[in-house]
Design goal:
Helix content is 27%, strand content 29%. It has 267 residues and is an alpha+beta fold. The protein has a single domain, classed as Fumarylacetoacetate hydrolase, domain 2 (Alpha-Beta Complex), CATH 3.90.850.10. A hairpin with a 5-residue loop joins strand 12 and strand 13. The N and C termini lie far apart (41 Å).
C-alpha cells in the first residue's frame, strides 16, 4: 500500500498536470507494486482537493464496462470516477480544447436519479425504480497521465487510469430524455460521426448486458467507500463504442435513432 505522503505526492502531480496541461509520467512506473486500492485512494484524495477549492460533486461515471475492454487492461470489473460541476456541457456545445490535454470521445447513456441508491445489495430493479429519466450523452476523456512512456514504451496501466479519475474530463448531455421502462435499453443503438464520417457504432447491451446493471454495480462498489448515489445525480453508465480521438476543429454527432442525438464541436 502507498503511504499517505506518496498518495499526496501523486495527487499534487495530477493536479499540476491538469492545470498546466502537461501529462505526467505514469504513476505505475514509479510505484510498480501500486494496487487498485492505492489508485482509488489517490483518486479520492484528488477529488477531495478539488472539493476544497469549491467544486461540487454532480454525479459519477463508470468505465471499462465491456468484456473486451476489461480483458485488454487485465481486470474483471469496471472502474469508476467522479463528475464535478464544471464538467457539464449540453447538446451543441463548443468544447474548449485548450482546457484539456489529449481528448477522446465516447457515447453512452446518462441516468438522472430521482431517488437514493445504496449498496451492498442494489439491483437493476432498484436502479429502474430510482431513475427519473435516461438520456444520450457523450463522455469526454482526457489523459493527465501519459498513455505511453516515451523512454520505455510502456503503456498506461489500469491503476494509472483510476488514479486519473478514470480519465474523466467532461460530458455532453443531449438527445431525448426517456423514462427507464419506456424502452429495452439493451437495444438502444448509436452511430458516432466525426466531421460527418461514421467512426463507431454500437448497441447499449455492450454495457454489462444493460446499462442499468452498470449503475447497480456502481452503487454496490461505492458502498465500500461509504458513498451512496443521491437523488439528482447524473450517472454515466459506460460507453458502448470505443473511444475516438478528438482534435481542435472536430465536430462529433452521435445519433441514437428514436432517442435523438447529441453533438459537440471542439474549438
Amino acid at each position: 500500500m502507498l503511504s499517505k505522503d506518496q498518495i499526496e505526492a501523486a495527487v499534487a502531480r495530477l493536479d499540476e498536470a491538469e492545470q498546466t496541461r502537461r501529462p505526467i509520467r505514469m504513476l505505475s512506473l514509479d510505484h510498480p507494486d501500486m494496487t487498485i486500492e492505492d489508485a482509488y485512494a489517490i483518486q479520492r484524495a484528488w477529488i477531495g482537493r478539488k472539493l476544497a477549492r469549491g467544486r461540487t460533486i454532480k454525479g459519477h461515471k463508470i468505465g471499462l464496462t465491456s468484456k473486451a475492454m476489461q480483458n485488454a487492461v487485465g481486470i474483471s470489473e469496471p472502474d469508476l470516477g467522479v463528475l464535478l460541476d464544471d464538467m457539464f456541457f449540453y447538446d451543441g456545445a463548443q468544447i474548449p480544447t485548450g482546457r484539456f490535454i489529449a481528448t477522446r470521445v465516447e457515447a453512452e447513456l446518462a441516468f438522472v436519479l430521482k431517488g437514493r441508491l445504496a449498496g451492498p445489495a442494489c439491483s437493476i430493479f432498484d436502479v429502474l425504480n430510482a431513475t427519473d429519466y435516461v438520456t444520450p450523452a457523450l463522455e469526454i476523456l482526457d489523459a493527465r497521465v501519459e498513455r505511453r512512456d516515451p523512454d520505455t514504451g510502456a503503456t498506461r496501466k489500469i491503476v494509472d487510469t483510476i488514479a486519473d479519475n478514470a480519465a474523466d474530463a467532461a460530458l455532453v448531455i443531449g438527445g431525448r430524455p426517456f423514462r427507464p421502462l419506456e424502452a429495452d435499453m439493451r437495444w438502444i443503438p448509436v452511430l458516432v460521426a466525426r466531421n460527418g464520417q461514421i467512426e463507431e457504432t454500437g448497441v447499449a447491451a455492450g454495457v454489462l448486458n444493460n446499462p442499468a446493471n452498470a449503475v447497480a454495480w456502481l452503487a454496490n462498489k461505492l458502498h465500500a467507500f461509504d458513498v451512496t448515489l443521491e437523488a439528482g445525480e447524473v450517472i454515466l453508465s459506460g460507453s458502448f463504442v470505443r473511444p475516438i480521438d478528438a482534435r481542435k476543429g472536430d465536430t462529433f454527432h452521435a445519433d441514437y435513432g428514436p432517442f435523438g442525438s447529441v453533438s459537440c464541436h471542439f474549438v
